[in-house]
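User: Before I run my own analysis I want an independent prediction to cross-check against. Here's the chain; please return only the structure tokens and, at the end, one sentence I can use as a sanity check.
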Amino acid sequence: MNTNNKKIQLKGLTLPELEEYFVSIGEPKFRGRQVFNWMYNHLAADFSEMGNISKELRQKLSANCELQTLNLVTTQNSPSTGTKKYLFATHDERKIESVVIPEKERNTLCISTQVGCPLDCKFCATGLMGYKRNLSVGEVVDQYLLTAKEHGKKNITNIVYMGMGEPFLNYETTLKSVEIFTHELTKGLSRLRITISTAGIAPRIKDLADCGVRVKLAFSLHSGFEDIRSMIMPINKKYSLKENLEALKYYAKKTKTRITFEYTMLKDINDRNEDIKALTKICSSIPSKINIIPFNSIKHMAPEGISSKLEPTSLTEIHQFADKLRNNNITVMIRETQGDDIAAACGQLAVKIN
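Assistant: Structure tokens:
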């Protein structure tokens, strides 16, 4: 029994961890498998829903364990695109956001890994809100479970770790959540439908390559020049573009996968002819594609300094830029902005830190 009055959070535990817990309380190991299935496959939010577990054990679990990590505070729907933003509260009343992005053949859930973000990228609203703490595995996983319960589990087809925070600064939690999402008992997502995005924590890129978890990797590039990247992404001063590109080459070779370079277009900063040359050089040395992202306004965060001066490259110039890259045999996609009317588009997620 739990004698310290603090309930044990089962949401977020992997199958081996659940099996170990049930053995530790004198229950058969297979109980862990049953609870894993109920939580992550059947989306059970209460022990009373776990029909193949005895009433006595359910009562025991209710007295000593918890399943809920997040509370839904509010939602916002984009009338133009159908994008839906979720505001969740954690147990300590921190606020995080997730977004479900509908597309013709898939629905993508964008999830957060931190409350805020410590990296302070100048074009990102999350960076402007500051940083409070890492999310737990349960808090990361619950973003999927709670939205899947509303949309229907089969209707959430893809997950991108592109919400609040830097996933590689919450590395172990990110990997555990992927393990849960892709487990055969979860009957959920293929690893090919999960993308982890990083602003550039080079050692963790290599760690991910070596750990055996095969997911898609997106790299927030945004400039092919060290000085410009350092100006708009301070993390580049710690982990240089050169170091990150070496890590990405290692990842692509080790995993036999193609890197996605994310590239937010900023007027007169990274939309010049010399930027095309730099991107062509990078992409010629790494199996990759470029995902061009129109810069979305962060005025809702009242930015100062460099952030207040950033302007978007026009859509016409973005298409011209993309065509020039394609002429250099680079695979380029232009991300269609969705959810900017509810501050849910790429780079716009932010809430007041309390």
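Sanity check: The chain has a mean pLDDT of 91.
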